[in-house]
Amino acid sequence: MSWPSLAKRLLGGGPTRSQMVFVWLCLPPILLYFAFFALYPIFSAFFISLHRWSLTIPERPFIGLDNYTWVLKEPVFLIALKNTAYYAAAYIVLCVAIGLALGTMIYGFREPHKSIMQTIFFVPVMTSMIVVAQVFELMYAPGYGILNYLLKSVGLGPYMFTRSTTQVMPSIIAMGVWKSVGYYMVLFIAGLTTIPRSLYEAAWIDGASRWQAFRRITLPLLTPTMLFSLVTGSISAFQVFSQVYVMTQPRGGPGKSSYVLLLYLFDQGFQYFEMGKASAIAFLMFAVILAVTLFQMRVIRRQFEY
To answer: What percentage of the chain reaches a pLDDT higher than 70?
Structure first.
């Protein structure tokens, strides 16, 4: 498609000369910005991943796929991948399930209660991840944390939370879900507003229960929202870093029980200064996220065809 025909479609008719001049003047800065801040870093990182690129050694010879081979053979990479996948799976399932439940419930509220509830659940989404992680780290503290204080008052605990190899990942997941669930709730409320009310009225006239209407009408028509939530949530979850960095001592601990891919990338790049290996980890992460995304798109579309 040529630029004049594209401009014609965007402007809704035959563009005037001044409109065409405006389009041609606006496009180059946008394309240059995209090329410099998006395309160039991607190609540069891939170029680095093909070299033995250490910040402490001036020589940077070409080594092909050796960095990728080294990373894939490292036991730490498999541990980080497993922990990341565990976090991503639990995070996205809980966020989508709770977000759908909250969205369905709050969607039936009347104003101003509906707006108030949406605001309450959306406030954590707008809060900095670092701040939330620090607050939860204080709440999880074994000696003086408020959670252990409340649990002790009912005869439970104390629990180690982020100091335990078995409790650290569930503790981080709980914090991530608490912070993000309001975002998914808003997405599902927006999706529910697009479903015609007449479909529910026709179903109820035919004797359908609320569960049947939800299963036969709501879920299939929320397929685009569900797919968007799963894809964006998975991409976000596989990039988990800040909460692990802040809430665990040592980072990724205890042991390697909360060690994730981005923390592995960070250590290779900024602790050992091995930029070639760090870039290889980044592209392996991209491959994993792409595979998960394609799988989700195929499964969701097949599950809710209507």
So the answer is: 93
- Domain regions of the chain by residue span: 3-49, 69-303
What are the pLDDT digits (tens) for 76-91?
999 999 999 999 999 9
Annotate 56-125 with three-state secondary structure.
CCCCCCECCCHHHHHHHHCHHHHHHHHHHHHHHHHHHHHHHHHHHHHHHHHHCCCCCHHHHHHHHHHHHH
In the predicted structure, residue 300 carries a pLDDT above the cut 80? no
pLDDT tens sequence across 127-142: 999 999 999 999 998 8
Is the pLDDT reported for residue 3 higher than 80? no
Neighbours of 128 (CB within 10 A): 10
pLDDT of residue 262: 94
Q: Tell me: cis bond preceding 254? Omega within 30 of 0 counts.
A: yes
* Residues whose CB is less than 8 angstroms from the CB of residue 275 and which lie 6 or more positions away in sequence, other chains included: 48, 53, 54, 55, 269
At 306, is the pLDDT very low, low, confident or very high (cuts 50, 70, 90)?
A: very low
51: phi then psi, degrees, rounded to nearest 5? -130, 155
Q: What is the CA radius of gyration of the chain?
A: 24
What does the pLDDT read at residue 302?
A: 64
**Euclidean distance between CA atoms 73 and 3, whole angstroms:** 48
256: Cα within 13 Å, side-chain hemisphere: 14
Let me know if domain 69-303 sits in CATH 1.10.3720.10: yes
List Cβ<8 Å contacts ≥24 apart for 255-259: 255/165, 256/76, 256/79, 256/80, 256/83, 257/83, 257/165, 257/166, 257/168, 257/169, 258/83, 258/162, 258/168, 258/169, 258/172, 259/76, 259/79, 259/80, 259/83
- The contacts of residue 87 (CB under 8 Å, 6+ apart) are 169, 172, 173, 176, 237, 240, 260
